[in-house]
Structures are given as structure tokens and as C-alpha cells.
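Structure in, sequence out. Go:
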């Protein structure tokens, strides 16, 4: 009897699809679990630890609101709240006005050298906040080159804080307002011209209403940056105490961690309020955009162009003066007794046992933050935007990803002390290491990178994942072969953003460094505390030059990557 040979059974198409789906679910579940644990550990638990510490005494016993009662009944501490609000309102008003004039000149006039003005106007964002504070000492300190201009008044206190933070926060306001004014609809201006509306009336009825959400967003961002900054107030604040310096004094000076936690709660409140307002403004702002809008193009006007050229030149002169003074001071051998120019202050081994180590530590911190942070942030954003995770889990992850932007760096750093320094915490071994500094810095700047990733991923067609599934291609492979190459420009932007901020940050890491891992920004603070203003200036200038060099490389490689992605697309 003839035997009939049967061919080996091949899996059906539906079976192959099920295997792909099953593997995708396994990978997705693992990634979502890892992301959730990461955000809970690096953001949520440290904040909860800080809040818990605020209702405990020095021995860790629960005391309810006793610490808050003590704080509110201490006149010296409550004055800090008033001072913080005064500083916030004053600087926000000045910065928003100057940045609006500058952004208006860049977007609504035909003044010459606009590209140069735009680039140079962003320079302060590459400097640590301590740099303008040191420049204030060189310019207007007791032995400053322009002290006489103050006519007997002191730079230490409110004036120094205001000038230093106006310099440091200006580019942040410029970024937002430049975008707000760029998105104007030319049809509105054409209608105003046809109706023979005067330039002033057009400005009041067209320009300001179109930019109002950008203005509100700028106010909330600048106010948050000002009230949570630590560096400028520490160096030139004098006896003018603010909440940020109070936290530093309570923790570093008095080792009073409970009261430091209470102060952190008070500092957290205005930041959270500003964040909520900003989120609502952004949602409303999206409703103003229309696909039918026509980009506004300014027309030459000699009087208007000349006037705004002068205004921008004066603002830029102030920026250059602050940076130039810091560079000059770093080259003076011994201010003000030996004004000979040399590289003496850059010989850090002569001023500190650490020598150049803090600078190289900052480089390691910056590269580690850029690499690790970009990877984690993009994977998180991809799963929030493209994966099929349950809606509830998506909402939780998104909420935790947005939380860091509302948390001041010093508050997050203090939370890390309480959480990671607990003996019973198995992660305690990370305390005092470079790894923890990287984790903290990534968490501190997580939100901006997350939003950038989401914006880039939204440009990808939703059908990519569907096509990949129909072709039996696992989603993680589609992620590697399609999503990542397409989003390379955004990934580069995020990595540079993280690198620059890791080089310049002070507030978040000032509580977490150890003798072996002191970042350059903290070394600047340490040297200034010791009266070594020259070396402190030199280290601050090194940070600025490093961040600037990396940013220039970013612009160069960015063009190459854009060409690559365009060809890929």
C-alpha cells in the first residue's frame, strides 16, 4: 500500500500574527513596567519623602503641622516669602518687557543683523546662574569697575538679584515670545490696513491679543524660574533672604532638614500654581492656530527699524557686558591688587584640592545625562504616544512625566536626600555617586524632553504600527527602523538640552554631590564662598565655553541630520 507523505505543517498567517502580537505584548509590558518603576522611584517617591519629612521632628516622629506653625510664626522666615514674591514680580515684569521688545524686533521689523541678534540674545542660557552674580561683583561690588554708577547704593541685596536674574532668564522669555509673535496671521494685519487703523491701534487690537497666551505663558515660566533660583541670591543676595536661600541655610548651615522640607513646600506652591496656569494657557493657545493662516512678513520702515535696532543693541550690550566682565575677571591675576592678565585663575590645583576634577566630573555628568536621559525620555514618550497600553496607565505615566517641570531643583534634590539616604532603602548605595547625580538631573529636566519627543512623534503617521503588525514586524523593530531615524533631529535637540543643563545646573545637585563627585557649577559656588572670586569666575567661564562649543556642534550636525532624515523620509 502506497504511503502518502505529508508535508510539515506550516504555521498559518493568523498564528504568525498571534506570535508577533504576543511578543509585542511581552515587550510592551516589560517596558511599561520599567518606565513606571523608574518614574515612581526618581520623581514620585522622593517628593513624597520630602512631604513626609515636613511633618516630622528631628527624630523622625510625626508632629503634624507643628513645623508649619513654627515657620509661619518666625518673622525672619516669613519675610523670605514676601521677598521671594517681590523678586518674582519685579524681575518678571522687567524680563517680559525687554524680551517682548526684542522678540518684536526679530519678528516684526526689518532691522539689520537679526540672525546675529537672535543667536547672541540666547547666550545667557548657556551660562550657569552664578556667572551673572560674579559679574555683578566685578562690575558693582566694593572694588567694582563701575561701583560709582550706583551712587552710594550697594549691589548686594535686591538690586544684584534683579540684575543677575534678568540676565539669566531673558533667553527663556525670548524663546517663548519669539514663537508667539512668529505665528501671527497676516490676514489680520491686512484687514487693519484696509480699515486704515493706526499702527498703535493695530498693535493693541491685533498684535497683543494674538500674543496674549504667549505673554501669559512667559510670565508663569519666568516667575517660576526666578522664585526657585538659588545661585544669584546666594552670591549677591546679601541679607535679602528668599525661600531658595532659606532652604540652603536650613539644610547646609543648620542641618535642620525638617524645616528645610517645610520651606520646600512653600517654594513648591508658587511653582505648581504657575505650572497649572501655563498648562491651561497652552491648551487655549492651540485653538488659535489655523491651517488657513498666512505667515506675517514685515515690511521695511526706516524709523521703526532704526528704533528697534537701537533697543536691541542696548539689550545686547548689557548681555555682552555681563559675559565679557566675567571673562575679563577670570583673566585678572588677583582682583583688584594685580590687574595683569594671565591664566593664573585657571590653575585650579592652586586653589582647591580637587583642581580640574569638578570640571571633568561635570563633563561626565553632562554626557551621562544626555545619553541616559535621551534614551529613557524618548522611550517613555513613544509608549505614551504610540503604544496600546491601557488608558489609565497612560494617564499615570503622563502625569508623572509632567510633574518635574513644576518641582524646583532644590526641592527635588532635598527629596533625594530623604529618599535615597534612608538606610532601609536598597538604593541607598547610590547616594553620593555620579550615578545618582545623573538620575537626579534627568528627572529634573525630564518634562521638556518628554514634550519635545511627543511633538516629534505626533508627526509620524499612526498607520506605521498597523502596517508593521500586518507585515508581522514586531513594534519594537518598527520603533528602531522607522520612529527613531525619523525623530533624530528631536533626539539631538533633547540630548543637547540635557547636556547644557547638566553643565550649568546648581540647585538640584547642591545637596547630592560628594567630595569625589563635585560638579563644576558647585565648585564655582564653593570657591566663591571661600572668597576665591577669580577661580570661581574662571570655572564659570569654562562652563559657558563648553556649553557654547557643544551648541555650535549641535547646529553643525543638526543640518547634516536634517538632510539625512529628509532623504530617509
Amino acid at each position: 500500500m502506497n504511503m502518502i507523505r505529508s508535508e510539515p505543517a506550516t504555521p498559518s498567517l493568523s498564528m504568525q500574527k498571534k506570535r508577533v502580537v504576543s511578543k509585542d505584548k511581552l515587550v510592551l509590558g516589560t517596558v511599561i513596567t520599567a518606565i513606571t518603576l523608574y518614574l515612581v522611584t526618581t520623581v514620585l517617591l522622593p517628593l513624597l519623602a520630602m512631604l513626609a519629612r515636613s511633618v516630622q521632628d528631628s527624630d523622625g516622629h510625626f508632629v503634624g503641622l507643628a513645623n508649619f506653625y513654627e515657620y509661619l510664626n518666625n518673622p525672619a522666615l516669613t519675610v523670605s516669602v514676601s521677598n521671594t514674591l517681590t523678586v518674582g514680580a519685579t524681575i518678571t515684569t522687567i524680563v517680559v518687557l525687554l524680551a517682548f521688545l526684542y522678540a518684536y524686533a526679530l519678528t516684526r521689523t526689518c532691522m539689520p543683523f537679526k540672525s546675529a541678534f537672535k543667536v547672541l540674545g540666547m547666550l545667557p542660557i548657556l551660562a550657569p546662574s552664578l556667572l551673572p552674580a560674579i559679574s555683578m561683583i566685578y562690575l558693582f561690588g566694593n572694588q567694582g569697575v563701575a561701583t560709582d554708577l550706583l551712587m552710594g547704593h550697594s549691589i548686594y541685596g535686591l538690586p544684584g538679584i534683579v540684575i543677575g536674574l534678568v540676565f539669566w532668564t531673558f533667553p527663556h522669555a525670548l524663546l517663548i515670545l519669539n514663537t508667539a509673535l512668529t505665528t501671527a496671521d497676516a490676514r489680520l494685519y491686512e484687514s487693519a490696513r484696509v480699515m486704515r487703523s493706526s499702527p498703535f491701534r493695530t498693535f493693541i487690537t491685533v498684535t497683543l491679543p494674538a500674543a496674549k497666551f504667549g505673554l501669559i505663558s512667559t510670565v508663569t515660566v519666568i516667575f517660576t524660574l526666578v522664585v526657585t533660583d538659588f545661585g544669584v541670591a546666594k552670591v549677591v543676595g546679601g541679607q535679602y533672604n528668599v525661600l531658595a536661600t532659606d532652604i540652603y541655610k536650613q539644610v547646609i548651615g543648620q542641618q535642620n532638614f525638617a524645616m528645610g522640607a517645610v520651606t520646600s513646600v512653600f517654594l513648591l506652591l508658587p511653582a505648581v500654581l504657575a505650572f497649572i496656569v501655563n498648562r491651561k494657557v497652552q491648551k487655549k493657545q492651540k485653538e488659535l492656530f489655523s491651517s488657513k493662516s498666512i505667515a506675517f512678513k514685515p515690511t521695511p520702515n526706516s524709523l521703526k527699524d532704526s528704533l528697534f535696532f537701537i533697543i536691541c543693541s542696548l539689550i545686547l550690550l548689557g548681555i555682552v557686558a555681563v559675559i565679557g566682565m566675567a571673562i575679563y575677571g577670570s583673566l585678572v591675576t588677583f582682583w583688584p591688587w594685580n590687574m595683569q592678565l594671565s591664566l593664573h585663575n585657571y590653575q585650579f590645583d592652586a586653589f582647591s584640592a580637587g583642581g580640574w576634577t569638578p570640571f571633568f566630573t561635570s563633563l561626565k555628568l553632562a554626557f551621562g545625562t544626555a545619553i541616559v536621559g535621551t534614551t529613557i525620555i524618548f522611550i517613555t514618550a513613544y509608549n505614551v504616544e504610540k503604544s496600546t497600553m491601557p488608558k489609565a496607565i497612560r494617564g499615570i505615566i503622563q502625569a508623572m512625566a509632567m510633574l518635574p517641570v513644576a518641582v524646583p531643583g532644590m526641592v527635588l534634590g532635598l527629596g533625594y536626600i530623604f529618599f535615597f539616604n534612608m538606610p532601609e532603602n536598597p538604593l541607598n548605595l547610590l547616594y553620593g555617586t555620579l550615578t545618582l547625580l545623573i538620575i537626579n538631573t534627568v528627572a529634573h529636566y525630564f518634562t521638556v524632553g518628554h514634550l519635545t519627543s511627543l511633538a516629534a512623534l505626533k508627526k509620524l503617521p499612526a498607520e506605521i504600527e498597523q502596517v508593521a503588525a500586518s507585515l508581522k514586524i514586531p513594534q519594537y523593530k518598527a520603533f528602531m527602523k522607522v520612529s527613531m531615524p525619523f525623530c533624530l533631529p528631536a533626539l539631538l535637540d533633547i540630548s543637547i538640552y540635557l547636556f547644557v543643563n547638566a553643565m550649568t545646573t546648581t540647585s538640584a545637585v547642591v545637596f547630592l554631590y560628594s567630595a569625589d563627585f563635585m560638579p563644576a557649577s558647585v565648585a564655582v559656588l564653593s570657591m566663591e564662598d571661600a572668597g576665591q572670586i577669580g577661580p570661581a569666575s574662571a570655572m564659570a567661564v569654562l562652563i559657558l565655553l563648553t556649553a557654547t562649543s557643544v551648541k555650535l556642534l549641535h547646529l553643525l550636525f543638526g543640518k547634516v541630520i536634517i538632510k539625512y532624515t529628509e532623504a530617509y523620509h
